[in-house]
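User: I'm putting together notes for a lab meeting next week and I want to include a structural view of one of the chains we've been expressing. I don't have a solved structure, so I'd like a prediction I can at least talk through. The sequence is below, exactly as it appears in our construct file.
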Amino acid sequence: MSNTQKSLLVQGYEVVIGFETHTQLATQSKIFSRAPTAFGAEPNTQACAVDLALPGTLPVMNQGAVELAIRLGLALGSHIAEQSVFARKNYFYPDLPKGYQISQFEIPVVQGGEVSFFLGDEKKTVRLVRAHLEEDAGKSLHEDFIGQSGIDLNRAGTPLLEIVTEPDMRSSAEAVAYAKELHKIVTWIGICDGNMQEGSFRCDANVSVRKPGAPLGTRREIKNLNSFKFMQQAIDYEVRWQIEEIEDGRAIQQATVLFDPDTGETRAMRTKEDAADYRYFPDPDLPPLVIAREWVERVRSEMDALPRDVAARYVREYGLSEYDASMLTQSKATMVYFQNVLVHTVPAKLVSNWIMGEMSRRLNADGITIDAAPVQPKQLADLVRAINVGTISNNAAKQVFDELWKQPLAVGSMSAREEGSDTFSGIGEVDAIIEAKGLKQMNDTGALEKIIDEVMAANADNVAQFRAGKEKAFNALVGQVMKASKGKANPQQVNDVLRQKLQ
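Assistant: Thanks for the context. Below is the predicted structure for the 503-residue chain, given as structure tokens.
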């Protein structure tokens, strides 16, 4: 839990967060027309007569969008309604051509379900209320430098699946972890590309605070959070603001707010509407959506294994912890990389440690994904094997990993280091780097015993202290042995031999 969240609890308030996530479905055409959905087209070049709501046009349901909704329902353990209904959600914005949005209200296509994830090493579960199909609106464009605004209707009619949670989250960190897990699921099952910058995955956070045990407080909805970093900042600021308002004796007014990344603050955009304000009624142009069980089972049979199923297999077959298995299934690319390393018969736990540790650190630092990592699965397998059989230490392995990362080396050549340089010319393998940089661990027991004897003779005080019961003196002796061996001695072997001699 962050320091911010701890301070909020100290002040005696409980944070309550629910999410509404607009997931753009990965169809080639819009939900009720054949107009394309490609991102980045010139304004108003991908809006047909249906999207523009010209007189005499009628919506026609996109079967592909329904199938993607079914896929999400199966992935989240939801009930998929055999019959659902479309409704008109009435409001008046310049970028809403019809004056209403076609959505679902009383009977959505996906009902219930849950999303489980880890916050640190603690498992959390967020319950879902629903996921309903709807069309997107257009976009208002404001050209400040010429003082004019325009309307781009390319997005109008783009298929969305709005995923709504119960107010189950209690911190910004938990909300971000939920959003990341949902993002993983929708991209894993292929219903959304997950591009937050392009608006394919947009989150609205409903935030309120209350005294523990009190009824839910008045919520404010933070709209269109398109970055996990900004999501956490926006929620933290909104929580602090609401508590300050309450402490100063002012009531919270239900509202829709926006987050400004430049100031790090939320600001009210408009008074928040309730369902009654939208005057929902069934859309007379669309019949009820009927989904046969056979259709659901066909979609189920065509789906790949879900992240939770793959993670469960890793726990069962490789003895990994649930947390480790969850991290290795954060994306399909991570799963594929992990499995491609294991093909070379190396310990799964050691591979997991390296992918979650050094590999993850370097990926984050360079801002790339694992499928673009310079270190290939075969190279990581060779490195892990060298550690496992005692050829090199963990510290030496990090040096090899750094060399592989700096200068990707194609497997198959044994080129050595250029004379007088710490970099390698051309191509090489893990073994070649170990040899050229002199990183191989000392495995000669006789040579190690000689070094230990010399260290014990030169550090008689530490020897006496250890024999008097001071364990710290042992660690000092180990450090001296490692220094004398220039880091090439096997630390475990040093511990074993040194302890035998001391006793």
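A couple of points you could mention at the meeting. The chain has a mean pLDDT of 88. The two ends are 46 Å apart (CA to CA).

User: Perfect, that's what I needed.
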